[in-house]
Write a structure and sequence with these properties.
- By secondary structure, the protein is mainly α.
- It has a domain of 105 residues.
Length: 313
């Protein structure tokens, strides 16, 4: 009430946010803090030029959403909160340190399907792509932006087609830059999966995208989620074009089929990985030439192994 009575006074908003932050450690105060998110974001939007207030507001929102996720509470934040976060991103688009925190906050917000849809509606995707282009070297920002892109691409509608098509080369640049960073590579693979699932990969990008995803699998073989999502992304590409299937067979760095076998044997107890590999192989055998090659490389043997390992799936 104190904050709402004096929106225009920056000091009142700053003191209010500081006071709310003092309750973060008190678990019993959590239900009340959940109701304060719109008040905090409104204060940030009203005082768009105050970096200090934005930093404190963002830190408090991170604390509240972290606790919410820990307790399994998905917060479907409204369009006004999404709009505020968009304005904040635009205002501080050059501030690398603050953007790291802000993008982490966007990841938590986009965990809710409703909130992800609201972020998409207000036009956050072009801002994310702009941030990625500017801070391609920053692994935290790259991880967060790709994670948000994944959430938003899944809830995509036809109005965002051109924007999402431009997201593929940017996401590929992130993956290329951070191939050896498993956390970032996993996030980028997930984003590419969502984008390819929506058919946003240009014809000229099928082969290089497939080759890049294979590189990610080779560089991070132990990361089950990356392997699963990388294979799902490859399956989506193969479904769209035989070019992608041939790129897997004829990859210059080694046989994609041998890589698939190696990945399965490394993760033979992971049903999610096995399912993704089977989906990829199922898409590949739709092309006669590819199927003949897979036969010659004894893929039936691998399929029999998977069938024995997961007889009830």
């Amino acid at each position: 009430d104190f904050m709402q009575a004096s929106w225009d006074i920056e000091e009142v908003q700053a003191k209010g946010i500081q006071h709310l932050a003092s309750f973060v450690k008190d678990r019993s105060a959590f239900p009340c803090l959940l109701k304060c998110t719109e008040v905090i974001t409104h204060a940030m939007k009203t005082h768009i030029d105050s970096l200090d207030l934005h930093i404190e507001g963002c830190t408090l929102l991170l604390e509240i959403l972290s606790q919410a996720l820990e307790q399994g509470v998905l917060m479907a934040l409204g369009e006004c909160v999404a709009s505020c976060l968009l304005h904040t991103v635009r205002k501080h688009s050059e501030n690398e340190e603050f953007l790291s925190s802000l993008c982490s906050l966007l990841v938590m917000v986009s965990a809710s399907e409703v909130a992800a849809e609201n972020l998409r509606k207000v036009g956050i995707i072009p801002e994310l792509l702009s941030i990625l282009r500017r801070f391609l070297h920053n692994d935290e920002i790259c991880f967060s932006c790709c994670a948000v892109l994944w959430s938003l691409a899944v809830s995509e509608n036809n109005g965002d087609q051109a924007v999402l098509e431009s997201a593929v080369p940017v996401t590929s640049a992130v993956l290329q830059k951070h191939l050896q960073n498993g956390v970032v590579a996993e996030s980028a693979c997930s984003a590419l999966w969502a984008l390819s699932l929506q058919g946003k990969v240009a014809d000229s990008d099928y082969e290089p995208t497939a080759a890049l995803l294979l590189d990610a699998l080779r560089m991070n073989p132990e990361r089950a989620v990356l392997v699963k999502n990388g294979c799902l992304a490859l399956a989506s590409l193969v479904r769209l074009s035989e070019t992608a299937a041939l790129a897997i067979l004829l990859d210059s760095k080694g046989s994609g089929i041998e890589l698939i076998k190696d990945e399965y044997h490394l993760h033979f107890d992971e049903p999610g990985v096995a399912e993704a590999l089977c989906l990829l192989m199922n898409e590949m055998v739709q092309y006669d030439e590819v199927m003949l090659d897979m036969r010659s490389q004894k893929m039936e043997k691998l399929l029999s192994e998977i069938k024995l390992q997961f007889p009830f799936s």
